[in-house]
Description:
Distance between the termini: 37 Å
Strand order of the largest sheet: 1-2-3-4
Shape: globular
Order of helices and strands: HEEHEHEHHHHEHHEHHHHH
Amino acid sequence: MGRSLLTHFSMVTYNVPRFASSTSCGLSISGYLRRTRLIRQQAGGDFRCFCSSVAVSEPVNSESSASPVRKRIVSGVQPTGSIHLGNYLGAIKNWIRLQDTYETFFFIVDLHAITLQYEAQQLLRATKDTAAIYLACGVDPSKASVFVQSHVRAHVELMWLLSSATPIGWLNRMIQFKEKSRKAGDENVGVALLTYPVLMAADILLYQSDLVPVGEDQKQHLELTRELAERVNYLYGGRKWKKLGGRGGALFKVPEPLIPPTGARIMSLTDGLSKMSKSAPSDQSRINLLDSKDVIANKIKRCKTDAFPGLEFDNAERPECNNLLSIYQLVSGKTKQEVAEECRDMNWGTFKIVLTDALVDHLHPIQVRYEEIISDSSYLDEVLAEGARKAADIADVTVNNVYQAMGFLKR
């Protein structure tokens, strides 16, 4: 129900955006060429979809404005598999904090969920379940807009426009395509698996994001979107756009990576060196947000540990220990130092009971609220419809500007 896109889960300017470059299109030729070299170097590396990341924008605020304009954040999670502890602690839990400070848009990225074979009925059910979990986790519709990606058509429209400017070589080198096409077999792989990074870029660029929070190990994943933004700015922005009746300048802001606080990378319960994932074959490797108390207790009881005495953070020889202590820290709300002192002399048997109780206590209110929301379909439909209206109002500005700059006849 929630493959991270951020990994997988961006914004539009209400005023003329502030760009660092003084060139006519908001991008220097030297900067463009430099990034072209960089993307070619990194494309053969470890690119992955990061739409579950949070994207932050900073609309320009006039100096004469009486009150500051809040930065805008957009993030999403795929409705595939079950939303697990890694999705929650790495992305969704951070949304709750961000929605009080920023203008926030959180969406269910259903278009990304069809890049591989799927069941239509399952997608329909999982989309609503994912939205309900967003709200159950604390996303507040009075503060944040929650919507379904496919309900805002600008995502697909911008993806197609960006596709015309995306060199096929960039996509051929994407590691996700290589790995998944090899597993599925070339004859069974759809074109969408190759082109999904362009949709990922559209998800971010639609909303003129300034920053995209990613894990420390994922900063390079943002580079394709950055390169594509600069390429389109160079090809169609500046004076070229102005001659077609536009305002000129850059069509897109070029987003920068933002490294979030702890909790961005929760590891598997069966392998402390692998990230917790919905695609892992064993459900034992993850704690799903809707797991019952007994299921959680069983998974923690059977999770991988080590034979070292005591418990400690940050020992490279003890990845499982570091992961389980980090989970406990995040769900208990304690500081790292407090957890280190509390658990220093514990054995695994004692700690697993403590961790299980903390997980159950933390997830129980979410599960209760989820059942309330999913049983009231009219309320959920209203939340998603209102969120889509707000998102479309913003996204349409960006996509219409791109249509104009690329020479399309106005509708």
